[in-house]
Amino acid sequence: MVSLNQFDEENFSELGIDTLAVRAGQVRSAEGEHSEALFLTSSYVFGSAQEAADRFSGAQPGNVYSRYTNPTVRMFEERIAALEGAEAAVATSSGMAAILSTCIALLQSGDHILCSRSVFGTTTVLLTKFLAKFGVSTTFINPTDYVAWESGFTAKTKLVFVETPSNPLSDIIDIQRLADITHKHNALLVVDNCFCTPALQRPLNFGADLIVHSATKYIDGQGRCLGGVVAGPKKYVDEVLGFIRSAGPSLSPFNAWIFLKGLETLRLRMEAHSRSALILAEWLNTHPAIEKVFYGGLLTHPNHALAAKQQSAFGGVLSFRVRGGREEAWSVIDATRIMSLTANLGDAKTTIVHPATTTHGRLTPEQKAEAGITENLIRVAVGLEDVVDLKADLERGLSQLKS
Ligand SMILES: Cc1ncc(COP(=O)(O)O)c(C=O)c1O
Which of 6, 299, 371, 393 has the greatest number of beta carbons closer than 10 A? Predict the structure, then answer.
């Protein structure tokens, strides 16, 4: 007889990524539903007082309360773990909650973080403004300077945090090389895999210890829900889960259900985003109104070969500096009619944003300068529209600039 729940953890490794994206983690209820069920319930009932006591004490496995576990969230966690090639995963209410929960669970006062200076602006704010209040210090490192990484370690460095490709400048970090350096110093390498997703890059294969995601982005794929996830060895994921249970940044089951549906088309979407982004990047790279384009897929990108080795495609996010300053950048953004002026990315709808005054607006001028967030920088997260229309949308503003 074919089991209702077809895939056991043991045979995940034998299955292709597309099969995992559609099938992994699904647990069917006694109703035999074909599509994943949405368990919108905050708590669970017990058959007897003894059973309640056993569930609460952990003597009997099973659901207690949806801040701890929920069957729909569980399916999402299992699917992400399978896709990332991780032993375990735990979902969170947002990408920032995934980063916060990882830090709080694995660090203590006095510990030190080494962080790439090319990370999402809010990650920088979280580390410098909030974790610092609790005695966790952070040093920011030029992401592709491995001598600087090596010399940044102190006896207290417990965690190294990077994004690759980075937001918004598409720095590509050699994960294997950084993992080797990190492990020599007995620290953990955490990779924010938001821009590639496991469809294009699996950092655990290159020696990373933990993956964090903003599921809000490509995992959803249609800009509907906030969510996050942490994946890696069970011993670390259990620590993060312990914090989430106590602190409450748990993922809503509704959002998990949306993400499960998003994952089914993840690779197809990532390849389409990447195809269009490359076409736009190559076109912008020769445009007279453009000073510089940042995209790992360009042959002119300093780490193109590394990107091609680590990633199966180059992703949907590119950024570029127009000739001029803020005024010129804003004029290009304001001239678009198809692209959405919004900070989110990973959506079927192309988004355009001015990082210096939005996503990275809370950075100090020094932090912006160090991270390369200049006033003439524009980020585009290429969606699934016709690429000729996207080109025309950008050209409307670019053609008005002096070359
Ligand atoms: C690379 C990266 N990591 C983390 C986050 C934070 O995710 P969330 O908005 O889901 O909290 C973002 C959000 O834009 C991001 O771009």
Answer: 371
